[in-house]
Amino acid sequence: MACQSPTFPNSLVEPVSSRVLRWTARGGVVVWTGFWGWFSVASMMGESDGFMHHLEVLGITLGLAVAAWFWRTIGGVLMGVGGLLAAAAFPNRAAFWLLAAPATAIGLLLLLSRIQWPPGTALKADRKEVDQQPAADH
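RE: above sequence
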């Protein structure tokens, strides 16, 4: 009897499009968090009176990153809401592009990666995984 790979139900096969969206969002989270982490640490070193404020920003940024990495739906909602609040709080165009737009885009990507795409839209590689499941020996 040949060695067979385990069979998985169709619901466990994640479409390639969802994986691409998820990893694109995670890459954005890493870049966004890295930028704001660097900015907060550099600002703490350069300012004597803003230490606690920048420490709070760093904590919020890291918290959003952890939520976005481990819980896509919660992280997506929090990133999106945080981006919209930042857009309302900072009417400056530069602040919008550095703070609000990336957070909102990451939140949207995270939420889109959670959508269960219709079966007909999965790429051929995903359909092959489902179609090539070994038949049960009886």
